[in-house]
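Handout, page 2. Input:
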Amino acid sequence: MPNIILFDLDQTLLDRNTSLIKFVEWQVNFFQLVSQQNKQNFIARFIELDNNGNVWKDLVYSQLIEEFSIQAFSVDFLLESYVNDFNKFCSSFERVPEAIKNLYNKGYKLGLVSNGKSPFQENNFYALGLKEFFSTIIVSEAVGMRKPDRQIFEYACRELGCTPNECIFVGDNPKADIEGANKAGMKTIFFHPDPSICSTVADEKIHHYDQLETAINTLDNFIL
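Output:
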């Protein structure tokens, strides 16, 4: 019976899309990057260029500075603000804290496996206030491995003293999270807040954290 639950961070525990919009809106207002008339266009373009976090922000800011003719601030300055300030706007999806605390109190061992830069991702995770419930926090840049490479999942198992078949992985990315964890030998739960979006290869699917424990119990019973 799996007693270890591993989670992705962005768009799984962390509502990155909402957090990013709040951050960019703050940054535009705080530094007065563009006029109020152009603010929404700037935010929309930032989100587009960011491409769900797949493009690092030096490239995003470089393009924005050119397109919006920003002269008062450099790429390095805005990037430093992003690295230092984004975590102040990080928030989880609805019912994430309650679900995590409930699993922890029931004896599950919890871990985080996230792609991204270090310590940027760690700080974003810490901002959610869940660190005390997690036995391991793994960020790809810090360990030199990246999902969907099965080695990073195996690394997590070594950190937790378990085998992949004792783990369930919860994530939003069909390839990096679900296929990667499946190939490593873990059971998987696909999360997406939109019920119309699902994964065809995940063992279970949820769109709200109220459904998480039921999905875990289903996998537990299936394995038994």
